[in-house]
Amino acid sequence: MGRVAAAFPRLLLLLLGPGALGLRLLLSAPPPFNCSQLDLNCLVRNSTCMDQSWLQVSTWTPSAPSVLDVHPDVFHDEGKLLPVLRIEWKVATDASIQYLRGVELAVLQVNNNRQICAQFDFQNNLPLQVRPDGGRWNFTFNRFEVEPGQMYQVTVHHLPKLGTSGDHNCKSTSYTVPDCKDPVMKRTMPCMQTGSLWEPSIDGESLDDSSLLVSFNPGMESAQYRIHVTSFPDEEKQCKETTHIYESLQSGQQHRVNVTVKIERNLKACCRYKIQIQPFFTICGNDCLRHSAVIPCPSVAP
Ligand SMILES: *[C@@H]1O[C@H](CO)[C@@H](O)[C@H](O)[C@H]1NC(C)=O
Ligand SMILES: *[C@@H]1O[C@H](CO)[C@@H](O)[C@H](O)[C@H]1NC(C)=O
Ligand SMILES: *[C@@H]1O[C@H](CO)[C@@H](O)[C@H](O)[C@H]1NC(C)=O
Ligand SMILES: *[C@@H]1O[C@H](CO)[C@@H](O)[C@H](O)[C@H]1NC(C)=O
Q1: Where do the CATH 2.60.40.2160 domains begin and end in the chain?
Q2: How confident is the model at residue 15 (pLDDT cuts 50, 70, 90)?
Q3: Which residue spans of the chain are classified as CATH 2.60.40.2150?
């Protein structure tokens, strides 16, 4: 393991460059985001999450959004797919719509407490309590880039904010982005950088008490694979474990690989195996996604 680790020094960080991972606002990526809609002229901008209305108390403030939904989505940026949140909300149908001047959108990444914001500035008041077609006024924003597998707190604040105590005019929800095993997420750039497109379909066959034939589909490039096998007599207890390094030298479309893994002094009863394969692809080095499979004991022959 140490030998392999030394072969990929900080490669991942070099490839990604600064700011390529994590929470980010994609406002300037083409096409520029436009928050205008029927009868509403709206401008969108970067925000410091500290709208002036905190300080200047407004006599009248609009009520909170009535509905807030968050979904996973992807954004096409120069041929790359980026994971983003699609935030959708609706404006409550009440007279407070007359005082709605804009919206602050805040996204907090829970594991590192980092928050970024975007702001909609309405250039005119909404002309009616409902949309001209009769529905509730609704909005969508899909320019917060996020990390697969991470949890976020999403808050939509109607502006001006309530400067005094009372019912805060925001709505909040927490949302966990699907991880790189998700069929949509696995095609995004941050997932592909962990080798998410590799589908090994691991299989195992017991040859005798102390050897296991492991087979899997290798990746497209020549790479090293660390095959870790653990044997068990049942669900809980563990018997032996062993690690085998396999190096595939060919690249391109390849046949399934068969590797015989020996497990020294394994007991006959320890016939259940857990196989974990860690690939070392160039793009992800030591941080590639690992895949595993469980091989049950062979059913007793009659
Ligand atoms: C946004 O779209 C409206 C039409 O819906 C258009 O009149 C306006 O120029 C657009 N604004 C920007 C900044 O592109
Ligand atoms: C938004 O703010 C961030 C940090 O303050 C800055 O790096 C970025 O360039 C700004 N983006 C736009 C579109 O103004
Ligand atoms: C508002 O909702 C309608 C119906 O669900 C949808 O088709 C439309 O795209 C939404 N508009 C915005 C700006 O989110
Ligand atoms: C691996 O084993 C399977 C059957 O178990 C066989 O069909 C295949 O040809 C073997 N592959 C190699 C590269 O030996």
Answers
A1: 18-191
A2: very low
A3: 198-295
* Residue from 213, 250, 255, 257 whose mutation best tests the ligand 4 pocket (most atoms within 8 A of CB): 255
State in words which class domain 198-295 has: mainly beta
pLDDT digits (tens, 9 = 90+) for 91-137: 999 999 999 999 999 999 999 999 999 999 999 999 889 988 888 99
Mutation to probe ligand 2, out of 25, 35, 47, 117 (largest number of atoms < 8 A from CB): 25
Give mean pLDDT, residues 280-285: 92
Residues with CB under 6 A from ligand 4: 215, 255-256, 258
Q: What pLDDT band is residue 21 in, cutting at 50, 70 and 90?
A: low
Encoded tokens for 4: 């392999």
DSSP per residue, 162-184: P-SSS--SEEEEEEE---TTSTT
pLDDT above 70 covers a percentage of the chain that reads 91
Contact status, residue 116 vs residue 25, Cβ threshold 8 Å: yes
Query: Hey, what's the torsion of the CAs at 136, 140, 146, 147, to 10 degrees?
Result: 70
| Closest-lying ligand 3 atom to the alpha carbon of residue 88 | 14
Q: Which CATH class is domain 18-191?
A: mainly beta
Q: Look at the alpha carbons of 163, 167, 171, 174 in this order and tell me if their dihedral is positive or negative.
A: positive
Q: Which of 131, 142, 161, 148 is nearest to 21 (CA)?
A: 148
Q: Is 114 in the pocket of ligand 2 (CB under 6 A)?
A: no
Residue closest to 138 by CA, chosen among 120, 160, 116: 120
**Mean pLDDT across the stretch 150-155?**
97
Q: Whole-structure pTM over 0.70, yes or no?
A: yes
Atom of ligand 2 nearest to the CA of 48: 5
Q: What separation in Å is there between the alpha carbon of 107 and the centre of ligand 2?
A: 15
